[in-house]
Fold:
Amino acid sequence: AIAIAWPQPDANSPDIAALMLMDAIMTTGQSSRLYKSMIYEQQVAADVGSTFSVTAQPGQFGLYMILAGGKTADQGITALNAEVARMRDTPVTQAEIDEARNELITGTLQGRETSDGRADELARSVILYKNAKASDELLAKLQSVTAADIQRVAQQIFDVNKSVTIKYLPEEDQKGATEDTFADAPTIQTSKIEIAVADIPTYTLAAEGSRVAPPEAGAPVEAKVPGSSEKTLANGLRVIVANKPGLPLVSASLRLSTGSAYDPAGKAGLASMTADLVTRGTTTRSATQIASEIESLGADIGAGAGADATDVSISTRSDKINDAFAIMADVVLHPAFAAEELGRAQRETLDNIELGMSSPRTVGSLAMTRALYGAGSYGGVPTKASVSSLTKEQLAAFHSANWRPDAAVLVITGDITPDAGFALAESAFGSWVKPSLPLPPAATAGAAIAPRALTIDMPKIGQAVVFLGRVGPARMADDYFPTVVANNVLGGGYSARLNAEIRIKRGLSYGANSGLTARKLPGPIAAAAQTRNDAVPQVVDLMVSEFSRLGSEPIPANELAARKAVIIGGFGRSVETTAGLASQYSALAQFGLPLEKLQSYSADINAVTAEQAGAAAKAHYDPANATLVVVGDAAQFWDQVKDKRAGMERLPIDKLKLDSATLK
Structure:
């Protein structure tokens, strides 16, 4: 990785609006200069971006790059400096300014969808400008920025004599080089804070038993969820519209009932690659045209595949909705699956796989998936071999068989009426032809797999990770909500049991948590904690102990109430945005659940009793039936963990075979 930084002015500089536009032109979206040049054209980077933030004091404007596989830091620096010089020496186009302005305005409106976002914007306005209306005034200033303004600011910022360049090299490439010593320049002077010693209060921590107890959890605040209207088009496409007025924003989610669970053996990643490629070119638009057209609207488009479903989504201002929907329909109905784009997407995916295999957490997560599901529908994980084997013909065939209107639901939410939403759906997707062939058979759960204990050895890695997991209930199971509550008690937040025991009390991790994933078939439960290698044995013991305690001791009423409040609050925040609301309605439709369940979600959580949560914990959190996966430098902990579980295996990272159901 590389990074280059320059000094930048403070928030009160008259050039802040121009600097915001310059940053957006360089780094926002797939039509930005850095993405197009570094990732798409030269393929020197796997990721690029900036560290730009408006600050009260003069700060630093930084650009960074995660290098693509096989590329050197020097190649990255040369390529990045060339783009910096282009921005500094050549005026930007009016089209670039218009696109960046639309993106910034839409981003601000989306930030205002949530209470957190509104509070943050107001606080920044007051802190940075001593003016509650500063954000609105800054948006207004964007309207008058010219290409000459942006070039002038670029020439001021990108002074080669005031830059700092950092290379971050993998250990194997450092070849024993001595690390540089960093020191502050003598010209840097920190602001003096003069407080008399007598004015500084001193506190002595009271004994634990005499400390003031935290307040009891208050009654959860139920979310106000807009109702929905629905209609089915002649081709079988189910359309759901939820009117959410207030801001001129609209989001849409087209969810297809086929995901990675439908990947054939040896082709893990097929559903995901198909989704990725639809936004990389159609029969009438190239990948760069799609990115440029959608981003010029200030809109976003994305596509991705989960285990059970594939989703294509857009978010846009309501005055741009017709143009955005036309692009959305084009990528869904007419993807080109060009060989050149497939090759580019494969290289990017392979770079990400290679990067992930150096992370204990990623390795552990992939290994846990395989250990829980083996060769079953949920067991496949994309690997270098499976991704490299994909062809454009396979992608086209998967799309033809599975992307169909009678197996999809379109949810439209935001500043739009039901009638307008239905008309928009008909205009965009009414011509989508329903295939004559029957729907593909549903994915099925594989045979149950015995719990396993596995240590994956990554010599000399600085941190380790511990996973404990098992297969839990399906989304439609009777005990799904009790399991959601039980899981939150265990690891659903900072004050939940795992984090309290592992991080707060003992400082063994920056965070420990557990998750329950909603799936059509029984979904995974997994707890995880990253820790020091020498602390692995203690973390394993604590995790096993907390799993056991969850199912063996009644959950106290005050703890149960607090965790329910966390769940209900999180749900409320998830439906504050038009995109979040669309996603929630899409999920209900995907699972075949009544849409009214969105309005009753808070009540469903509140109705869970301590006895029901305890029964779910007994059924799904018995550590004896859980799989243990540890990833780290085994030389530092193997002797202490090898006897903690019967049959504990030690597998060197270079022997780990994620293509195999057995990992060997």
User: Anything to note?
Assistant: Residues 229-429 form a domain with the Cytochrome Bc1 Complex; Chain A, domain 1 fold (CATH 3.30.830.10). The chain has a mean pLDDT of 95. Residues 95 and 296 are 8 Å apart (CA to CA). The longest helix spans residues 94-111.
